[in-house]
């Protein structure tokens, strides 16, 4: 059982909505950074920061595949239990007897419940959307053979499809050496798939632009 500072650190981590979303996603299966970013619609930098914090607290671990991508997974699961009875005992009796306060409290709880129901519906819709995205990615890999020649090219295009990024951010995001990334980006630029503005790269709005 966790106590003291350990509990405080865990509550700090779980107090962030996006870290809770990442934990919920990793309960389903291990994911790499790009996948978490795409599925939760978070920037790669934010995902990396959240993962690093949870890794330091031994909540997450990772393993690398042959393409040097890190797949993150929960090293241990947990549940938090709150003794509501003991909390109730500390509430002054005059408050418990005040029906106005109780009524407002019940109304707020109902509002929260409605929001949680709406969130559940959104998550269900998001799961359908994620399946569509996965399908389109598989179609891209099949239809673009000969144009996108490597896994690095595919992952790079998918990363830039969501965000403009500089080469330093791409190197950290994809965990590919900067020199290799630069060469791949130059090749994609020559093909008219990627364009550069200053230090930022992005997918061209129109092929051949």
From TrEMBL:
SMART domains: HTH_ARSR (SM00418). InterPro entries: ArsR-like_HTH, HTH_ArsR_DNA-bd_dom, HTH_MetalResp_TranReg, WH-like_DNA-bd_sf, WH_DNA-bd_sf. This is ArsR family transcriptional regulator. Keywords: Coiled coil, DNA-binding, Transcription, Transcription regulation. Pfam families: HTH_5. The lineage of its organism: Archaea, Methanobacteriati, Methanobacteriota, Stenosarchaea group, Methanomicrobia. CDD domains: HTH_ARSR. GO terms for molecular function: DNA binding; DNA-binding transcription factor activity. PANTHER family: TRANSCRIPTIONAL REGULATOR, ARSR FAMILY, TRANSCRIPTIONAL REPRESSOR SDPR.
């Amino acid at each position: 059982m966790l106590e003291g500072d350990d509990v405080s650190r865990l509550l700090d981590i779980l107090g962030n909505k996006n870290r809770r979303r990442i934990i919920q996603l990793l309960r389903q299966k291990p994911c790499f950074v790009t996948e978490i970013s795409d599925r939760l619609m978070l920037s790669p930098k934010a995902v990396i920061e959240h993962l690093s914090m949870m890794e330091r607290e031994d909540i997450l671990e990772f393993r690398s595949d042959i393409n040097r991508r890190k797949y993150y997974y929960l090293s241990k699961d947990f549940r938090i239990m709150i003794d509501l009875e003991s909390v109730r005992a500390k509430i002054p009796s005059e408050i418990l007897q005040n029906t106005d306060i109780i009524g407002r409290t019940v109304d707020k709880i109902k509002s929260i419940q409605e929001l949680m129901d709406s969130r559940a519906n959104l998550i269900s819709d998001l799961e359908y959307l994620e399946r569509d995205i996965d399908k389109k990615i598989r179609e891209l890999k099949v239809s673009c053979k000969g144009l996108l020649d490597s896994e690095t090219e595919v992952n790079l295009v998918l990363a830039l499809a969501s965000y403009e990024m500089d080469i330093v951010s791409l190197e950290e995001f994809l965990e590919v050496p900067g020199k290799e990334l630069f060469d791949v980006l130059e090749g994609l630029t020559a093909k008219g798939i990627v364009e550069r503005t200053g230090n930022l790269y992005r997918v061209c709005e129109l092929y051949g632009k």
